[in-house]
Amino acid sequence: MKIALPAICLGVLLAACASTAPPSIGYSRNLEPIPGSITYGGQPRTKLTEAPVGSIVPHRFRDKFGRQVSETYVIEPDRSLQLISRRIDYDLPSDR
Q1: Would the CA dihedral through 45, 49, 55, 57 be positive or negative?
Q2: What is the mean pLDDT of residues 60-88?
Q3: 54 φ/ψ sector (left φ>0, alpha ψ -120 to 50, else beta)
Q4: For the chain, how far is it from start to end, CA to CA, in angstroms?
Q5: In Å, what is the CA distance from 73 to each residue of 12, 51, 76, 82, 96?
Q6: Mean pLDDT of the chain
Q7: What's the predicted TM-score (pTM) here?
Q8: What superkingdom heads the lineage (predicted)?
Q9: Are 77 and 47 in contact (CB under 8 A)?
Q10: Contacts for 71 with CB less than 8 Å, ≥ 6 apart
Q11: How is the chain split into domains, by residue range?
């Protein structure tokens, strides 16, 4: 029993890590662009020709509600951008 409990805990922790890992090549999680995203309305007209394939491109903007949005893109082999993550920072009300 002393060995089984740590083994179960380790299995649960590994399963949690595997389920929250960022997407790998192929990006199974398809985020849709929102107004302000680089790829909203289609891919940009200019291609990123000097950046290596697989490079990360960060992008920050404010959405229509004034929230700070941070997005991360990766450059695909065809030089298009793939949106891989988005974080929205919600402003908490202040007491002022």
Answers
A1: negative
A2: 95
A3: left
A4: 56
A5: 31, 12, 9, 5, 37
A6: 78
A7: 0.64
A8: Bacteria
A9: no
A10: 37, 38, 58, 59, 60, 61, 83, 85, 86, 87
A11: 27-89
Q: How far is the C-alpha of 25 from the C-alpha of 45, rounded, in Å?
A: 24
Tokens found for residue 41: 């309305």
| Distance in angstroms (rounded) separating the CA atoms of residues 13 and 32 | 30
Give the residue among 95, 85, 37 at the shortest CA–CA distance from 61: 37
Could you tell me which residues come within 8 angstroms of residue 90 by beta carbon, excluding any fewer than 6 positions away? 67
- Give the strands of the sheet with 56-62, arranged side by side: 56-62, 68-75, 81-89
Is the CA virtual torsion 76, 56, 21, 62 positive or negative?
A: negative
Closest C-alpha among 82, 42, 80, 5 to residue 71:
82
Beta carbons within 8 Å of 87's beta carbon, 6+ residues apart: 69, 70, 71
